[in-house]
Specification:
Thrombin, subunit H, mainly beta, 2 helices, globular, single chain, 6-stranded antiparallel beta barrel, 6 strands
Length: about 100
């Protein structure tokens, strides 16, 4: 059940005519999600790759796609005052479910 509100954070960088970054804008959008903890096997596999998986958020695929900013995926997720960096986004099970795998 997707009953937790999380915030997807997208960092948008603009460049000037010469290709140098001029400004950085942060866009925050709320979405409902199901909060999951990483399973034992997932954690061990991630640790072998040098990654500390902290949380997994399951969202509706269509809702997630509507949160994209000019086709750019979010960089971070905020939930209960904690900020997580997005490591992976994957479809899980049926087409309507997308998992956002996060690390601290």
């Amino acid at each position: 059940m997707r009953n937790e509100l999380i915030t997807l954070i997208t960092t948008k960088k603009t460049r000037n005519g010469r290709g140098f970054e001029e400004t950085e804008e942060t866009v925050r959008k709320g979405i409902f999600a199901e909060v999951r903890s990483a399973g034992v096997i997932e954690k061990y596999e991630a640790q072998r790759a040098g990654i500390d998986v902290s949380a997994i958020f399951r969202v509706d695929t269509d809702s997630y796609k509507s949160m994209l900013l000019d086709g750019k995926r979010p960089d971070k997720v905020e939930h209960d005052g904690e900020e997580y960096r997005i490591h992976d986004v994957r479809r899980k099970g049926s087409y309507k479910k997308t998992e956002i795998v996060c690390k601290r």
